[in-house]
Amino acid sequence: MFLHAFKNLFTFKTNKSLLNKGIRRRLELLGLEERITPAVPFSPAFPNAIFITTGSGPVTTSASFTVTFNQSVTGVDATDFNLIASGSVANGTISSVTGSGATYTINVTGITGTGTLGLNLVDLPSITALPSFAAQSTFSTGTNPSSVTLGDVNADGRLDMISANFSTNDVSVLLQW
Asked: Does the reported pTM lie above 0.70?
């Protein structure tokens, strides 16, 4: 009965309201309602700067900043930064942006006056994250899998994969380690 009821979680019904009620009721009957956490839609992490540092020592007419992002990015250029000056510092210009991956160097030249000079990241959409994927892994399920869903089956905070197998009338649960 367990396998048949679990398989029915994945059957197509035209009335979504009835489908959702049916799924909840089946989970209650199986004692899994509290244990399976629904999957969250994929939301890519947006890149952001986690460190902006500069070298030590006195600055005369030029300065160099190192910007470290939380992930590998592309599209980093001078328009992505603002210079913040205090005191009588003036005329600083971002002359070059070099680097790749998660680390970039921003060079500032033409600095005059005394005081401090800082660098802020501007919120522009030109910086984008580079996609990264793990190596492909292949997992076996039962015969003729007909549906798949994600849920935290073993309550470890990680999404596991559940497959309903049509031909064998059983379920495969693939736990994420």
From this structure: no
